[in-house]
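Our preliminary data section would be incomplete without showing what the modeling component actually yields. Below, a chain of 353 amino acids is followed by its predicted structure, encoded as tokens that our downstream tools consume directly.
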Amino acid sequence: MGVQRHARKKGPTVTITVRHLAEWVRGEVLGDGDLPISSARTLAEAQPGDITFVEHDKHLNAWHNSRASAALVPLSVPVNGRPIIRVADPLMAFAQIVQQLRGWPPESAPSIHPTAHVHPTAQLAPGVSVGPFAVVGENCEIGANTTLHAGAVLGRFCKVGEGCVLHPHAVVYDGCTLGHRVVLHSNSVIGADGFGYRFQNGRHVKVPQLGSVEVEDDVEIGACTTIDRGTFGATRVGAGTKIDNLVMVGHNCNIGKHNILCSQVGIAGSTTTGDYVVMAGQVGVADHVTIGDRVTIMAKSGVSGNIASGSQVLGTPALPHREQARIMSSCEKLPEMRKDLNRVKKHLGLEDS
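Predicted structure:
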């Protein structure tokens, strides 16, 4: 669905034109700047009266075939008869227009909801909001302008930096640390016990998990993702790393800076990743593995050993991308190769034993 201009209850109706939108995003108008715009939709959904966006030149055919009245485009795109707004980053400019057209009222001023529980020893900087039924535990420290939404929980002795957002029912266990501008989405769990047991006298005996989790600045952690505390030290997530929904990071891991971990990635304990590592969906990584800088691990790969910096790997076991692609291509040909082999054996008078 598109985003339409929010209806006003009072006052005259203001017509939004292409020129208005260009002023919002500081873009260059080519074509009819006075054309009215009522909504913002993607290329596939756009209708007359809508503005859309073209992120790359490869989407120009979709723009030419679109029913949209106008578009945000890269600086290199020519006019095709409809108004365009040239900007350096069409995607982010479109997002800004969507927010403006939506017209939602600003969030209410920072406050502590009456149903929230904030321990008397907790230290809250100015601008902190604590929503309904949220909990702030003993001796917690929360930086300025951080928001805990409904049902979010901080255990005891947690430290949270400035400008963080904990969405509903996010949980941070005792003694964990979040840097500045960290975002935890709903039902994420930071600092649960690591999965550590010893087999003694015919039973699994739990190893106490006495460490913590340290999340550095500008990290975003998706819904239902879990990051376990270290056994004695900290499980760490480096600055700028972005973690998707439903990801599992085991105890004692050290995740580097600016990593991308896509949905359903599972990383076993004591694994270390370098900076700018990308793990696509459903990658599995064994314990005590070291992955170098700028490694790309493709979807559904299984990593059982160390990976050198700069590598692209694929498959189970994960191998260099080109090597694994050749193996997969050969596997597809096995049925026909088997038929060829049987024909050769028959020609030579050889029978299966």
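The radius of gyration is 27 Å. Confidence is low (pLDDT under 50) at residues 6-13. Preliminary results of this kind motivate Aim 1 of the renewal.
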